[in-house]
């Protein structure tokens, strides 16, 4: 039976992860969960972000379920680079998977888009690009200061994530992959991405393809999100585009994500896209749907497609029954979802 | 009297620029306009993108009015790097100014946002960042290929554009500047931007400030565009955010921009955000409003604030009178705008 590591984290993290675990237990009893105390609280208490010993222990699990880490009291970058990105890179989670659906019952912000019409997934590269941490500065704090950030891209890294996107497209109805980059300005990385995309596309004649510049894609995600099926893109572009996709489908309160190592050599990690939301933490009012949908991605990745489908169906039932604007209680939503999923 | 250079360019460029000139002539008779043939057509005919002699001639003008350059038949990057970006960099146009308003009469895509509620301006850095052209590749075309793109940021370049943003905020009602970056991942450049922002903010106690990560800003531009007044950001982030801002305010058909050298040492350049739209070129159906609003920015920059205000008011009248979805004729819109503006 699957052994998962749980990093509940900060703010609303523990509240929403609690519901995700409840739902997992209801559809797949017997999963072992080990809790790891990581995040802002631990950092403040011990100064530690992610000790090597913990990294080693995490590596021994089948998957990681993460709530949210971060707090305004921690300097920018410390937990992001030291924990989240460290895990993504150490565990070679090169597929950062972010599905977006406009669920029936959810009032999206776009007047012309009806529920059910948007169903896209962004396959964001997770281990390269501007996230590589290749940058520096000189003459810091003086008028002569210069700071650099370098985007590193390899054929190896780019091709494997594009392959994953095509494989996913093949399992979907529309079978379409959109490459998003900025080939007209980032000509070196853009050319690498475009050539790798063409090569993989040639092996998948049954999959339709298109290319868009990132600025155009950002616009079309607002004016015409229906047009997308699978979107494959670079790490930073994916970061931005998935927040737009979340916004047009009802907000990051519903957005799930998986940081996946498809070969299973390392554990994959599943987390809601939202942050720790310190403003509402501890009040039991956070929406656990994003965490629960992330748990569905986890189940799917571990080979429990049926259990995953039941969780997703439970979310659909829950959302269809909501009254827009009505207050919700985290625990109650979790109980309902667990009930729908087991039924 | 002002001497402007006109680069009508490709596709719908000449059609919309024709209307912009008509409107300029109506509010400020006597402006001298010299046409320069640059763009995809010239590139195909002569192989030239921007000869040095033309660059020198352009430098002798007070401003440049540009329609649109580009065509699918030209390889990515050739005109962008060789013409548009070359001009922005050669003429040190470090303020890339992109206002977005939801005009009364324009049906925006957001259900909850009413006309008049959105009035923001993005001050996008125009001469640094990932647009510097600092990148390369090794082992091209092999499985070992690596490609880099480097973002270059200087205190000099960052501070001056932030100063411009604060100066603009002071002239606006809400007096608020939002810095957008990704300080939690791009820690070197992000820190430089954040420190420069704090320093300039300290000199402007009458201006309210906030910071947002680019992914959050992309989301809030969709869910709550009303919250922004002046946004200052890096070159690439600005490229993406301004397309979102355009999308939520009725599309790039209405979006104007100025690439400004505030000191006037070099000519500033004004261009609609939209491209050459080869699909509708030559049919006289392109909306010239973005080009005409760009002309208003040009007039303002050259010190003709009254003329600029008349053009902007003419656009407001035009848009308020439109029936959503009704076809339009480029020439007729131009004639109406010229008429409203002169009256
Ligand atoms: C917190 C941050 C490092 C992270 C990212 O930029 O990837 C977040 O925005 C996300 O999208 O998961
Ligand atoms: C055409 C391209 C080089 C340009 C840019 O990226 O700046 C365009 O997208 C813009 O926003 O003006």
From TrEMBL, chains A, B:
<dbReference type="GO" id="GO:0000287">
    <property type="term" value="F:magnesium ion binding"/>
</dbReference>
<keyword id="KW-0520">NAD</keyword>
<dbReference type="InterPro" id="IPR024084">
    <property type="entry name" value="IsoPropMal-DH-like_dom"/>
</dbReference>
<keyword id="KW-0464">Manganese</keyword>
<protein>
    <submittedName>
        <fullName>3-isopropylmalate dehydrogenase</fullName>
    </submittedName>
</protein>
<dbReference type="GO" id="GO:0016616">
    <property type="term" value="F:oxidoreductase activity, acting on the CH-OH group of donors, NAD or NADP as acceptor"/>
</dbReference>
<keyword id="KW-0479">Metal-binding</keyword>
<dbReference type="InterPro" id="IPR019818">
    <property type="entry name" value="IsoCit/isopropylmalate_DH_CS"/>
</dbReference>
<dbReference type="InterPro" id="IPR050501">
    <property type="entry name" value="ICDH/IPMDH"/>
</dbReference>
<dbReference type="GO" id="GO:0051287">
    <property type="term" value="F:NAD binding"/>
</dbReference>
<feature type="domain" description="Isopropylmalate dehydrogenase-like">
    <location>
        <begin position="3"/>
        <end position="337"/>
    </location>
</feature>
<keyword id="KW-0560">Oxidoreductase</keyword>
<dbReference type="Pfam" id="PF00180">
    <property type="entry name" value="Iso_dh"/>
</dbReference>
